[in-house]
Amino acid sequence: VDLVRLEGGASEHCGNRPVSVAVRSKMIDQLHDIVASDPRIFNPEHYATINGIVFEILVLAALQRPASAWRLLQGTRALDSGARVQRRSVVETVALASIASEQFTFRRVGYLYNSCRPEVVTTCEPMVLYRNYHDDYPVIDGFFVVDGHPGGTSGAEQQRGAPQRTVVLLQVTLAREHPTDTNKLMLLMKALRAQFSNWEDFTRNAQWEMIYFLPNKTEKMRNRQRCSIPRGMEGDAGHKNAHEFWNTKVRQYQKSVDETVLFVRALLPER
Q1: What is the pLDDT of residues 64-101, one digit of tens each?
Q2: Distance from C-alpha of 103 to C-alpha of 84, rounded to nearest angstrom
Q3: Exposure winner among 65, 112, 149, 236, fewest CB in 10 A?
Q4: What pTM does this model have?
Q5: What is the DSSP letter of 11?
């Protein structure tokens, strides 16, 4: 964000003079106070679409700076899957260590297009934050890929040269439950294959995680979020495969976000 001075009725252009450091600092402080005190953003009773969009923008912005990303990604809690031992998320075991000395969490930010004929066809890369361009993008608000597995790699995998990658799906929500269905999951996979020319090879043998970000005033998620098969599609092979993939391959985690998270750190210049 570049804060510049504009006279009354003037338009923004590349020659506008930036505000002073002191004025910028005061404006950022005021913005933080507004964000932290706005009950609509953190109050679970306010489920208006616009508030959900604001919360999503803030969380995805905060993820882009290591200082605030640490606050958001530490302490992710595994949703109950019935397993005796819950594996820690790759963001804690691999990703946080890799960004400790970096200026930015991700190499860059890319956009996801909700279409099987996307505006841009490219290759998927590790540690790039891909976020939705359209509000109706299926299942997720964004994702990134980590070069590594939370549990390491077995000797057999190392000998075969299997890629050690984890696809981390992101969903920012104001609701305590966020179920989906196989229709949406299949649309997601179709859109990803269409947008990324290397998707099949890049994600082959990858592990999968989903992280749900919620305001801390929303009741915490306890159990895995469902992916149901629409009525009448129970016998369809594609829907059954998508249902099995969600239930057996995608580990789910939840993170509560509170008002003390300094979202505006994502706007601050590096010192």
Answers
A1: 888 788 888 888 999 976 665 567 888 888 887 777 66
A2: 38
A3: 236
A4: 0.78
A5: -
The C-alpha atoms of residue 229 and residue 216 are separated, in whole angstroms, by 30
Q: Could you tell me the CA-to-CA distances from 210 to 178, 181, 197 in Å, in that order? A: 12, 15, 23
| 165 contacts 124 by C-beta, under 8 angstroms | no
What pLDDT does 155 receive? 41
- Give domain status of residue 101, yes or no: yes
Burial 161-189 (b: 16+ CB within 10 A, else e): eebbbbbbbbbbbbeeebebbbbbbbbbb
Q: Are strands 207-215 and 250-257 parallel, antiparallel or unpaired?
A: parallel
- Distance from chain centroid for Cα 133: 13
pLDDT in the model for residue 45: 54
Give the model confidence (pLDDT) of 220-267 as tens digits. Answer: 898 999 999 999 999 999 999 999 999 999 999 999 987 655 455 545
- Residue 224: count of CB within 10 angstroms of its CB: 18
In sequence order, what are the beta bridge partners of 130?
A: 110, 143
- Count of C-beta atoms within a 10 Å radius of residue 237: 7
Sequence-distant (6+) residues with CB within 8 A of 197 are 121, 122, 123
Structure tokens at 107: 């190499």
Domain that holds residue 162: 38-266
Q: Give the separation between CA 54 and CA 247, rounded to whole angstroms.
A: 30
Per the structure, how many domains does the chain have?
1
Burial per residue of 17-44, b for 16 or more beta-carbon CB atoms within 10 angstroms, e otherwise: eeeeeeebeeebeeebeebbeeeebbee
